[in-house]
Amino acid sequence: MEAKLILTVSLLISGTLTITADYIRPPPREILHFPWSPKHSSHPQQVHISLAGDKYIRVSWVTDDKSSPTIVEYGTSPGRYTAISEGESTSYSYLFYNSGKIHHTVIGPLEPNTVYFYRCGGQGAEFQLRAPPDQLPVTFAVAGDLGQTGWTKSTLDHIDQCKYDVHLLPGDLSYADYMQHRWDTFGELVEPLASARPWMVTEGNHEKESIPFFKDGFESYNSRWKMPFEESGSSSNLYYSFEVAGAHIIMLGSYTDYDEYSDQYNWLKADLAKVDRKKTPWLLVLFHVPWYNSNHAHQGEGDGMMAAMEPLLYSASADIVLTGHVHAYERTKRVKNGNLDPCGPVHITIGDGGNREGLAQKYMNPQPEWSVFREASFGHGELKLVNSTHAYWTWHRNDDDEPVRSDQVWITSLVSSGCVAEKTHELRKILMGP
């Protein structure tokens, strides 16, 4: 098989094709270095945006000036701001590090699929964003385990070429790993993309940064990357949900309690009970540690969460599950409990954004029946929900700095296949409890 062959696979119930790409990976690249450049203390830094409910967007940024106002001015013409919103701010200390003032301001209501120009804190550079559409089609860029290496930069450059509406990140953002200034450089690195399109993230193991008896976990992550957990009825920034166009998207936490007695499990049940598949025919789920993984790396780490939550997601007819953690790419057939199932979700591991730890290159043999395509290369994915019945998924390998489309597949929604209707009674029974 030629390495450049574009693989087209039809994801059908009867499909039996399994693929392992024959590709020689390039060597790792060094961690990026960010030369110090003086900025005005009240000018916004590390600007990024996220969805904050129907027609609302949260703008987040950092200033060195603790007296800088937490306001965002915005409008549909450059330099002409017709609205202003005020938000909240926070800061944190971590050993000898003191963060700047971290601002979070929600703006809206915004018109869908519309470009807005905005300014943070009343001064500094003007940014622009595009609000996502409120109807299908909608396109997501997907990349996990980013870090701050030369390959990260390559991945981000490729994503920048994609005409996407929202970025989905299933954990492991900055790889700061206790070195708090690396959160600042990560914010600087992703600002060009993250200030223009919503970035929806969930936590990975590298976000934990806990120190026993001294520091709780996820303080840096929660302070900097506030997600719409309150808007979705969650009590924790580590798990939440949101809707965009025709998709209901659930972001779960692999590193907080998930058993049937946990707050996360009970929140998930309540959230699934609210899903209207007529309004949002697609149900997507993201978390960090994969449940289906034929790589030797991180084998079995997701088994506990899978045992607790897979029955819930199966009964709810989740269409696609996106995860990270394993530094490689893998896509499955529809699967449940280790067996092929036409009403199970497609699982996609995409922890290959460009982190400093390198690629996970050893796979289990023989390849499991549920595994369709697997390859240890850096890259990113693009998911286009075309309509209520069909989605187009592509994975783009970072090949000599060119985004080579190496895997692509049309995915049919479970709504259109009849699985949702079949499992309505089963889901209601689980959600109502004994």
TrEMBL record:
Residue span, Calcineurin-like phosphoesterase domain: 139-329
The name this protein goes by in its record: Purple acid phosphatase
InterPro entries the record matches: Calcineurin-like_PHP, Metallo-depent_PP-like, MPP_PAP, PAPs-like, PAPs_C, PAPs_N, Purple_acid_Pase-like_N
EC number, UniProt record: 3.1.3.2
Keyword Hydrolase: yes
Database matches in PANTHER family: ACID PHOSPHATASE RELATED, PURPLE ACID PHOSPHATASE 18
SUPFAM superfamilies found in the cross-reference section: Metallo-dependent phosphatases (SSF56300), Purple acid phosphatase, N-terminal domain (SSF49363)
Catalytic activity: a phosphate monoester + H2O = an alcohol + phosphate
UniProt keyword Lyase present: no
Record domain Purple acid phosphatase N-terminal: where: 44-124
Cofactor(s) the protein requires to work: Fe cation; Zn(2+)
MF GO annotations: acid phosphatase activity; metal ion binding
Domain of life: Eukaryota
Ranges where the Purple acid phosphatase C-terminal domain occurs: 344-401
Pfam family, one: Pur_ac_phosph_N
Signal peptide range: 1-21
Keywords linked to the UniProt accession: Glycoprotein, Hydrolase, Signal, Zinc
Enzyme's top EC category: hydrolase
